[in-house]
Design a protein that fits this description.
The protein has 292 residues and is mainly α. The protein folds into two domains: 100 residues, Dihydroxyacetone kinase, domain 2 (Hypothetical Protein Tm841, Chain: A,domain 3), CATH 3.30.1180.20; 179 residues, Serine Threonine Protein Phosphatase 5, Tetratricopeptide repeat, CATH 1.25.40.340. It contains eleven helices and five strands; from the N terminus they run ββαβαββααααααααα. It has a three-stranded mixed β-sheet with strand order 4-3-5, covered by helices on one side. Strand 3, helix 2 and strand 4 form a beta-alpha-beta unit. It is elongated, with a radius of gyration of 25 Å. The relative contact order is 0.08. The model has no long low-confidence stretch (mean pLDDT 88). It comes from Anopheles maculatus. Homodimer. Interacts with IFIH1 (via the CARD domains), the interaction is inhibited by viral infection. Its EC number is 2.7.1.28, 2.7.1.29, 4.6.1.15.
Length: 292
């Protein structure tokens, strides 16, 4: 067998006796890591592609050895692709590709990002309903968890871009839950999806533009603002703080931390506000003293 041949028959770099899939994985991984060393804690995407005639089972045996060896070195496999992605005239063989991940590349896995949102919303179902029950009808957590859970099922196992994943959230919220929250949150995610549809990299400025377009889409259907004891009391200050951090030259992660603090402060500020919009506005002063 020959190692390092090209897809069009270019000569390889080494000829050796036939090896098992597991042994071949170790040999090829050594070649790759000699050229691209990986530090402990590094995250990678692994692509294992057959050349057309290699059984898929063999490809997975090969991949299993790759993952085992990377894990032993403290390298985390963030995502794997195993199959016949780049073939060569039904030839027996396999190719191995490793891609180092950074924060920007990692965010392109939209289904994983949204799956994280789903877990957070569903796990806070009771908490959200409890807060809503103080001055509302107590179904906010139930409805939000229902919509996000529907989205989670719809995207499960699909390699989606961030725009596609946000589209799935928007559709699930608009079509799957009742009340005003479906259109409101659905519009927010619709705007964010449109903003990143043509993005290949999501850096801090693209992230800011995404937030701003989501807010703009929401404001197209709602006149609510800061001080109305609603979503805007959290969303608007959070986006403003993120923008300020970006303009001051803060890193992406530092800007996110600042945004989180602003969101928490905005949330807490609703405790002393009187509701001016939505069902709770009918309560007047009685709406003061609880979070929205």
């Amino acid at each position: 067998m020959e190692i390092g041949i090209g897809h069009h028959g270019e000569p390889g770099i080494e000829v050796s006796p036939i090896q098992s899939a597991s042994a071949m994985a170790g040999t090829m991984l050594d070649f790759v890591l000699n050229d691209m060393p990986l530090a402990k804690g590094q995250e990678v995407v692994v692509l294992v592609s057959g050349l057309g005639a290699t059984p898929v089972m063999e490809l997975y045996i090969y991949y299993a050895e790759i993952e085992k060896r990377l894990t032993a070195q403290g390298v985390k496999v963030h995502r794997r692709y195993v199959g016949n992605y780049f073939t060569s005239l039904e030839m027996m063989g396999v190719t191995l590709t490793l891609m180092k991940l950074d924060d920007e590349l990692r965010t392109l896995h939209g289904n994983e990002i949204v799956a994280g949102l789903v877990r957070v919303i569903v796990s806070n179902r009771e908490y959200l309903s409890e807060i809503d029950g103080a001055i509302g009808d107590g179904d906010h957590g139930i409805n939000m968890a229902k919509g996000f859970a529907m989205c989670g099922e719809a995207i499960k196992g699909q390699p989606l871009t961030l725009a596609q994943a946000f589209d799935a959230v928007s559709d699930a919220l608009m079509e799957g839950i009742g009340g005003s929250m479906g259109p409101l949150y659905g519009s927010l995610f619709m705007g964010m999806a449109d903003s990143v549809r043509d993005q290949t990299v999501l850096d801090k400025r693209a992230f800011l533009a995404m937030l701003q377009q989501g807010l703009s889409e929401l404001q197209d259907i709602s006149s609510a603002g800061v001080g109305d004891k609603c979503l805007m009391d959290t969303l608007i200050p959070a986006i403003a703080r993120f923008e300020q951090a970006v303009q001051q030259g803060e890193s992406f992660s530092a800007a996110l931390a600042q945004m989180k603090l602003a969101a928490m402060a905005g949330r807490d500020s609703t405790r002393d506000l009187v509701a001016k919009i939505g069902r709770a506005s009918r309560l007047g002063e009685r709406s003061r003293g609880v979070l929205d």
